[in-house]
Design brief:
With 142 residues, this protein is α+β, with helices and mostly antiparallel strands. It folds into two domains: 51 residues, Translation initiation factor 3 (IF-3), N-terminal domain (Ubiquitin-like (UB roll)), CATH 3.10.20.80; 84 residues, Translation initiation factor 3 (IF-3), C-terminal domain (Translation Initiation Factor IF3). The protein has four helices and six strands, in the order αββαβαβαββ. The strands form two sheets. A four-stranded mixed β-sheet has the order 3-4-6-5, covered by helices on one side.
Length: 142
């Protein structure tokens, strides 16, 4: 089909003439709604990005030694929700003041917190990056 006929046909149908393959001996074109195609591609990319983000999502929960039982239970429920969704949870115990000289308090606090979490989990790693912060990462499953 000649180019002028193809352009006229696209204009009659209110579509765009899009070149699909320019490298062939005869260029291949297609009649389509180009803006709709671009919108669908962008929507698919956003959805793929959303799915990708969900796989790597990490929920961070901070605990301090002077936390109340109810506050810790609330944070444990937050960890439960995140673990059941398949997200990782990073639990950070922040030591300050007189607690810095007693790092065993952070370990006890983490054990109490792990006992409150009802979701199936495993401790991926527990480390103390500095004197003031003790970090434990949880991942869903056993």
């Amino acid at each position: 089909m000649r180019l002028s006929d193809a352009l006229r046909l696209a204009d009659e149908r209110e579509l765009d003439l899009v070149e699909v393959s320019a490298n062939d001996a005869v260029p291949v074109c297609r009649l389509m709604d180009y803006s709709k195609m671009k919108f669908d591609e962008e929507r698919a990319q956003r959805a793929a990005k959303r799915r990708n983000v969900a796989k790597t999502h990490v929920t961070e929960i901070q605990l301090k030694p002077a936390i109340g039982e109810h506050d810790m239970a609330t944070k444990a429920k937050t960890a439960d929700r995140a673990l059941t969704k398949g997200h990782k949870v990073r639990v950070v115990v922040v030591l300050h003041g007189r607690y810095i000289s007693r790092p065993e308090i952070a370990d006890d606090l983490l054990e109490r917190f792990f006992a409150l979490v009802e979701a199936d989990m495993s401790v991926e790693r527990a480390n103390s990056g500095s004197d003031r912060r003790v970090v434990a990462s949880l991942k869903p499953g056993s």
